[in-house]
Amino acid sequence: MYDVIIIGGGPAGMTAAVYAARKKLNTLLLSEDIGGQINIASGPGKYEGYQILDGNELIRKFEDQVKQFPVDKKTGERVTTLSAKNGVFEAKTASGNAYEARTVVVAAGKRPRRLNVPGEDILTGRGVSYCVACDGPLFSGMKVAVIGGDNAALEATDDMVKIAEHVYIITSNMLNGDEVLISKLKKAKNVTVLERHEIVEITGGKFVDAIKVRDISTKQERELEVGGVIIEMGLIPSSDFTKSILVLNQKGEIEVDSSGATSVPGIYAAGDVTNIPEKQLIIAAGAGAKAALQANRYIQRLTT
């Protein structure tokens, strides 16, 4: 049995693993992959001291640090259920394995809501982005499309208006967010609002060069020349396996307090899977460290 199981291999999970190992905890890191959302970012990883590194390099830096410690790391393992019995937590995976520990840190992150159109997968990280805070500056001086119609898309468009040549905001419904922001963007000279439109295809060679859009009412299609596509249709917390044991908010995020504690003593959570207000790499890493330290304190209380 492990002291702590850490679920998730992104910045929060890997940082939690390092801090748990530093406390001499017998640590298991379970994850489908290593890197989390960094894997789909286009630009450099925004982490203090490593501003010029691209996402893959930053992931390797995190992973190399984990390798310095005796962490049992199992990738390709998707946790399907998390349960507790007699003070012991059990994580079961899709491959049929089961692991037990005295504490758990859930750092499973979020996954972006995708368009599922031709060109999206192959051009992800090459002009297709799911994070304006991560990749927005890469599209400075370009024509870009922001996909989505709620406040996240409106805020992304507002960010891009300041640095892009032109911004198309495209939504399959009507814009639905703060009226002040909607009014501001509709008045902007370098913004085109396309309501009741859908993306048919994203095209490009090495990088995105255009998108095909369809008017839902008339079925007419046209091509827009863009160098970037920022998809802001929301992120889905990877929290399904915790529904039967933890309290989640309406968004499906795990409710945590300021220490990373969840509704169940002994289970902590960190990063984008939680209800923390800002979803940034450096915040996730800090939350992972904090959750691991709290897990160590929990174990100390068990053994005193």
Report on the structure:
- It is a single chain.
- This protein has 304 residues and is of the alpha/beta class.
- The protein folds into 2 domains: 2-112 and 235-302, 3-Layer(bba) Sandwich (FAD/NAD(P)-binding domain), CATH 3.50.50.60; 120-231, FAD/NAD(P)-binding domain, CATH 3.50.50.60.
- Helices cover 25% and strands 30% of the residues.
- It is built from 7 helices and 17 strands.
- The strands form 4 sheets. Strands 1, 2, 3, 4, 5, 6 and 17 form a 7-stranded mixed β-sheet that branches. Strands 8-15-9-10-11 form a 5-stranded parallel β-sheet.
- Strand 13 (208-215) and strand 14 form a beta hairpin.
- Helix 1 runs parallel beside helix 2 and helix 1 runs parallel beside helix 7 (281-302).
- The longest helix has 22 residues, at 281-302.
- It is elongated.
- The mean pLDDT is 90.
What would the keywords be for this entry?
304 residues, alpha/beta, FAD/NAD(P)-binding domain, 2 domains, seven-stranded mixed sheet, five-stranded parallel sheet, 25% helix, elongated
SSE-based structural type: alpha/beta
How much helical structure, as a percent, in the residues? Answer: 10-25%
- β-strand number: 17
Give Rg in angstroms. 21 Å
Question: In CATH terms, what is the architecture of the largest domain?
Answer: 3-Layer(bba) Sandwich
Shape: elongated
Distance between the termini: 19 Å
Weakly predicted, low-confidence segments: none
State the order of secondary-structure elements, H for helix, E for strand.
EHEHEEEEEHEHEHEHEEEEEEEH
At the fold tier of CATH, the topology name of the largest domain is FAD/NAD(P)-binding domain
